[in-house]
Amino acid sequence: MNYQVNEKGYYGVFGGAYIPEMLYPNVEELRTTYLNIMNEPSFKEEFNQLLKDYVGRPSPLFYAERLSKKYNTKVYLKREDLNHTGAHKVNNTIGQILVAKKLGKNRIIAETGAGQHGVATATVCALMGIQCIVYMGEIDIKRQAPNVARMKMLGAEVRPAKSGSKTLKDATNEAIRDWINNPVDTHYIIGSAIGPHPYPDMVTRFQSIISEEIKWQLKEKEGRENPDYVVACIGGGSNAAGTYYHFLEEPSVGIIAVEAAGKGVHSGESAATSQLGKEGIIHGCKTLLMQTPDGQITEPYSISAGLDYPGVGPLHSHLYKTGRGEFYSVTDDDAMAAGLELSKLEGIIPAIETSHALAIFKEKKFKPDDVVVISLSGRGDKDLDTYIEYFKL
Predict the structure, then answer these.
(1) Start and end of every Tryptophan synthase beta chain-like PALP domain (predicted)?
(2) Which of 80, 111, 341, 353 is catalytic?
(3) Residue 143 pLDDT grade (very low, low, confident, very high; cuts 50, 70, 90)
C-alpha cells in the first residue's frame, strides 16, 4: 500500500484538484514548480537555516515521566509548542513564504481557525517584508483574541468571515475568493494538509521535519528509530501529517489520529469526520466530509478552534479508509480533562487541540514497554480564557 501522493495528486481515491477555472493558473504554477523549488540546494539551505535560527528547531523530544507512570507506558512528547509562535504551523509557513518568493509573489493570504496559522503566516510575512491578509471566522476572532492581537502587531490585516458558521470553513471560503480575484501577485498559504493538489503534499513535506527529528531523537533515547505508536490530533491534519510522514511505510509503527467529538459523535455538535463523513469535495479536494444526505456541508463543532473543520486532509482519509491509521473521537470534556492533567503532571499547558491527542489514554490501553510519541502540537496560552471559563479557575 502506497501512502505518498501520486502524480495526479491523489492518495488512493482522495485528493485531486477540484478548482474553478479562474484558479487553474495559480494552482498549476505551483504544481509544476513546487518539487523543483523544494529540491534546490539553495532553498534547502535557507529553509533549514531558518528552522534552526528562527524557529528554534530541533524541537525537543521529552520523556513525560509522570504521565508515563500514570498510564504504565513510555510516553514521549514532541515539543512543537516550543517553536517560535507556539505551534507546529511555522514549519510550513517558513517553507511556503520561501516558495512564494521564488515565484515572485508579493502579497500573501491565509486562513486561520485557532489563530496559530494566522500568527505563523503574519510572522514570516513580517520577516520577509511581504503584505499579509488573514481571513478568520468572526466567532474565532472572539474566542482567540490574543492571537488576533498578535497578527495585528505583526502587521497583518485580519479580515472577518461573517457567513455560515463564521469559523474555519468560512474563513477558507473567503481566502479562496480573494485568490480568485488576485491571481497574479498573490500566494495563498494554506495552513493544513488540505486543499487542491499540490497543497496537501507540500504542507506535509514541510511538516515532515517533525517525524524526521523524532527518528534520530528516539534513536538517542531508546536505541531505536521507530516508536510503537505516533499520536496526533487531527482537524485538517498538518501536525498529524508531519508526525506520521516518516513512519507511513513502517507497518510496525501504529498511527493514531484523534478527532474532536465535540459534545458527542452523534450529538449534532461534533467534528468527528472519520465517524460522520463520507466522500465529498471541499476546498479543492476530494476527501471525507461531514455532509447531509443531499450533500450540503454539515456545520462542525469543537471547543477547540483548530479542530472544528467539517473535513480532513486527503492523506488522512486514505489512512482511515485503508485501515493504516486508527481513528479515535474525543469529546470536549475528555480533551479539557487531559489538558489539565498534563498541566498538573508535567508542568506543560497544551493547546486544546493538543489536549485531544493527550486524551488517547482514556480510549486506548498501551503495553508497559510500548514507546508512544505524542505530537504536542501547540501551547495553551491562546486557550487560557477557554480553560478559565471551563474549569472556573
Answers:
(1) 56-378
(2) 111
(3) confident
Domains in the chain: boundaries: 19-50+89-203, 56-87+208-391
C-alpha cell at 128: 520577509
**CA 54 – CA 154 distance, rounded (Å):** 15
Q: Which entry of 89, 166, 169, 382 is annotated as an active-site residue?
A: 89
CATH classification number, 56-87+208-391, choose in 3.90.180.10, 3.40.50.1100, 3.40.630.30, 3.30.870.10 = 3.40.50.1100
Query: Based on the number of CB atoms within 10 Å of its own CB, is 351 exposed (0-12), middle (13-18) or buried (19 or more)?
Result: buried
Ranges of H-type helices in the chain: 24-39, 41-50, 65-71, 89-102, 116-128, 138-143, 145-153, 168-181, 199-207, 209-222, 238-244, 273-276, 314-322, 332-346, 352-358, 360-363, 384-391
Active site residue 221: no
DSSP string, 112-173: ESSSHHHHHHHHHHHHHT-EEEEEEEHHHHHHTHHHHHHHHHTTPEEEEE-STTSSHHHHHH
pLDDT at residue 194 in the model? 95
Q: Give CA 107 to chain center in angstroms.
A: 23
- C-alpha cell of residue 331: 469529546
- Residue 377 annotated as catalytic: yes
Grid cell 463520507 — which residue?
A: 278
Report the CATH architecture of 19-50+89-203.
3-Layer(aba) Sandwich (3.40)
Catalytic annotation present for 215: no
Q: How far apart are CA 91 and CA 209, in angstroms?
A: 8
- What confidence score (pLDDT) does residue 167 get? 84
Among candidate residues 208, 326, 377, 382, the one labeled active-site is 377
Indicate the average pLDDT of the chain.
96
Q: Which residue has the higher pLDDT, 376 or 305?
A: 376
Q: Are 354 and 378 in contact (CB under 8 A)?
A: yes
